[in-house]
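queue> pop job 88
queue> type: inverse folding (structure -> sequence)
queue> payload:
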């Protein structure tokens, strides 16, 4: 399903709005998704409001959240996401709560297996 990059970063690729997006698996990020601002008009359903997120290293920030629809694991899912100036997506731990994450660094492979 995914790969480990040359720099050791685990990622999957999601096809959204006609583009393949590198989606970094960030176990230090406790939300669903952080998306590139370029996707805002393609995926937003409604504004949710401000919320706090914990990033790697324990840093806590306030971000604006939106309800969005994204293709994930062969289906269209409705999740909460924030938007930032970036060329990649972050997949957070809240989105993976129904999945087992396996990262096999020697093989440079990543697998997300739905368990619920």
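queue> result:
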């Amino acid at each position: 399903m995914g790969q480990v990059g040359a720099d050791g970063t685990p990622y999957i690729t999601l096809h959204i709005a006609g583009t393949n997006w590198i989606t970094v698996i960030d176990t230090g990020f406790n939300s669903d998704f952080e998306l590139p601002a370029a996707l805002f008009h393609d995926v937003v359903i409604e504004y949710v409001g401000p919320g706090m997120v914990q990033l790697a290293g324990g840093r806590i920030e306030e971000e604006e959240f939106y309800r969005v629809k994204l293709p994930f694991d062969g289906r269209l899912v409705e999740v909460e996401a924030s938007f930032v100036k970036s060329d990649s997506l972050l997949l957070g731990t809240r989105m993976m709560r129904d999945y087992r994450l396996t990262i096999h660094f020697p093989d440079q492979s990543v697998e997300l297996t739905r368990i619920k």
